[in-house]
Each structure stands twice: as C-alpha cells, then as structure tokens.
Amino acid sequence: TSVVVKLMRASVLSASARMRLEHEAAVLSRIGTGVFAPLLDCGDEGDLVYLVMPFVPGITLQQRLQQGPLPVMDAITVGCAILNALSEAHAHEVLHRNVKPANVIVNEGTFLREATLIDFSIARSARLDASIRDQWIGTAQYMSPEGAGLLDQEVTACSDLYSTGIVLFECLAGRPPFAGENVGEVLRQHMTVQPPKLRGLGLSVPRVLDEVVQRLLRKDPRDRYQAAEAVATDLTVIAEALQRGESEPTIVVGIHDRRQTLTEPAFVGRDQELETLSSQLENAQAGRSGVVLLEAESGGGKSRLLAEFAQHGAQQGVWILRGQGLDQAAQRPFQLLIGVAEGLVSAARLELGMEEKFRVGLGDQREAACSALPELANLFGISSTAQLGPEEHGEARSVQALTTLLDAVGKTGRPVLVLLDDCQWADELTIRVLSNWQRQSENTERPILVVAAFRSEEVAFDHPLRALNASAHLKLRAFPASNVRKLVESMAGPLPDEAVAVIERLAEGSPFMAAAAVRGLVESGALIPQRASASSSEAVGAWRVEPSAM
Fold first, then answer.
1. What is the rounded average pLDDT for all residues in the chain?
2. CA distances (Å), 393 to each of 208, 387, 401, in order?
C-alpha cells in the first residue's frame, strides 16, 4: 500500500535505453519533490528490471475523463500540477516522454483538488521504430511529432509540453484533438492536421486558455512554449482572473516564456473592440440584424480581430460565413461574396433541409442569384449562364437577388455572422447589395450580423461604403507603446528595453510592423538569444542586443 513495483524484461531494453533509465532513476530519486511521484529505486534481478515508485491514492485522469470533460478550473488544476512536475524534472534534464491521462492520478470526488504525475519510467528513442506500431493507440494520441520521429527535431522539454497540451485539450473537450482507427492515422494527424480550437467546437472556454492550448500544440517545437514554468504561470494568472469573476482574462499569452526563437504573436490590445463586436452579435441573436463597419490602417490588425470574433461567434453556436475582397485588377462582380456562396453550398450539403430553406427563401430569384454567383448553380440545378435581359436590368436583378439571398440566410432559424474582409476592393454592385439589405432588414427580425472590414487609407470619405447606415462603426486605433511591448514579448519572451524602444519606433503604432520589426532584428543579428553557461547567470532563452548590428 505504500509503493508500486513495475517489472519489465531486461531483453526488451537496449543497452542505451537501460543506461538512461538507470540514470534518470538516480536523478529523480535525488530531486525529493512532492509535485510528482518519483522513482524510489531501480535495479535488476535475473532477467527482470524493476522500478519502485510511491503509491498515490485516487483514480487516473483517464478514468475521470470517462465521466465527461472537466470544468475549466479543474482542467487548470490538472494542467498546473503536470507542468509543475515537468518543470522540476526538466530543471534536472529529465524528460517524462509519456504524459497522458493514464499517468496522472487525481483525487476522487466532485471537485479536483490535486493531481500527481506518475511514471517517469519510459526510456524511448527519439525515432519511431517498428515497436511503436504495436503500442496502444492511446499512447500515440499524446505523442509529439518529433517524439514519434515524424519531425527531424530533437526530443526536448517541448515534447513533454506538446503532450501536456493534448491532455489539457482532452480535459476541456472530453476527447483528444486527434483520433483514428490505427496508430498510423493518429500520427499522420499529429504531423499534418491543425488541432481544432476549443471555442470553435462551441465550448465555453476563455479565449486566452484556448490560446495557451493552441500554443502548446504547434507542430514545430520551436513555435511552442519553451518552458513548463511559463505555461504554469499563464494558467495560474488565468485561474486567478476567473476567480475574481473575469470571464475573459486579458493576459498576454507566452509573455513569461524564455525563448531562443520567435513564434506567432498573441492576440493583444483589441479587447474593447472585441467586446463591442460581441455586443452587436448579441443584438443580432435577439433578432436585431445590422451592419458593422470595421476599419484600420494597413497592418492595424483588423483581420486578426475578425478571426478572434469568428471564434467567439462559433463558441456561441453562430453560423459563420466569410467573404474576402481581392485587388480590383483580379476581381469579378460580387467577388467579395464568393466565399459566402461557398459557405451556403457547404451548409446545404451537410444539413438536411437547408437547401429547401434557401430555395423557398429565394423563390423565383434563384436564377438571378446563380447568374450573379455561379457557385450557387449546383445547389439549385440552374445554369449560371442564364440571360437576365439588358445589362442595366441584369445588374438590378442580380443586386435584388443577392439582397434576397442574404435575407433568406437570416430565415434559416440559426444566428448568422457574415464576415467580409478587405471591403476596400468591393465593387459598387456588392455595396448596393449590402445597402439594400440593410434598409430592408430595418423593420424585420433577422438573427444576422454583417461585419464589413476595410483599410482606412483606401476608402475615401465620400466612398459609398461609408454611407451604409451601420449599427456600429469601429476604427482600430494605433497601438500604444505598452501594447507593442506585449505583442513582441508574446513572440519572443522578455526583451531588452533597448530593442523594444527600436521596435516601437519602427512600428509607428502598427501591430503588423511591430511583429515584422522584431523578426527583422533577429534575422539581422541585432537580437541574439543568450544561452546560459557555467560562467553566466543569464537565463536560457533571454535575448541580448548586438550593438553594431542594431
């Protein structure tokens, strides 16, 4: 009742694996920490190798998850426990290599108060060999791409962090992000398939927590968190904010990490605008449709804000339709609405009865709609080359048909969010569609919100887009210096003040230019990752400035 003994055949271990196992057992026995169940002893007796570990009361996280996903605070408790254990082990250059729910013990009962990471006994090569194909598929579901030999990258602490990300995802979603009928299919997904965002699955998860999980699950280990302590710090700050009653904490993900390479920036500095958009969406869900204009200077972050807003909408169960403008030299009429049409066709194919709702909603204007947007033709079995009469009449019929189409989308019984980006390249006919629909919907209840985003400098004051009677008009402000620092440190971790000052000057308030500037400093050798050495107290992953290159 006080210890657990594991036995394995000595013949299944290579000489190098056995040596590493013995070394890690010796290291773990000296750590003397309470955050995980270390190996107490390791040795051999005849043809058997034995491992002795403390007995931890409770049930495995795997057993607990069979009852369903965990509440957010319980998932954070599990994540912090795993990360604190890994932080201690990684500090002594020991990797776990097998983080999964079966190797986490949690207390029984309604609320999770503690979790313990067990079983540091796996000593596996960094390359995938034939034996992996005989392993339980549940192990492969938690392996990093490099841990399975799918990437030509060293297995490091980042590999354990990837596995932790899989466990956190499963705690919140009730299932791992990747599943398949065999190990090969699961490993293929680890290598090639982007994990779904938790909010995109309709789960009520804070945006920053979703972002933490996504950063843990990046394919390239250099793009992930680099230190377990940094992840645990972010989770702790999120938990503290939730306990204060903040439903959407505003922390900058990754800002405590110490990195030697750059990663993609976190979502920074647009929380107020996101809140305004969310309020408009609530109005639409209540039947008060509307058009929101969103503008920013080039590089001002409108596309990133739209992406975050789309995730928020998906979390609310809203149907998301997207359109993208193209440079006028390459566009055709109604180019901006092509993505919307493709989204309608996909929905009709997947949802029983949706096609009939579109058919009824369009009535005798189906032919004109298909002529304007040929992508709809297969949906209704109508030729997209139908003649609509003289050109001026044809344009008017097309505008009216697409106005009716938008109205029909609002009659499907689902709240709808239509996101139109780069509207500075929208043709006049498309803007007429939006204007007509906006006027017609004023006196009708439709759960649909249209967001039209554009570059400020390319849309003149008297442009017809600005004449739309918008329910809200957002103009993204230039980033203040404090947000520039947060943005670039979410990419790099803490940076010297001298480097941040240069980035702030070069960025001129543009988040896009801030990200480009920090990349430029690294590529030119002006910012250099500082590795720790025996003669230096500098932390691994900190950055230093090279004055001549600066």
1. 86
2. 51, 10, 12
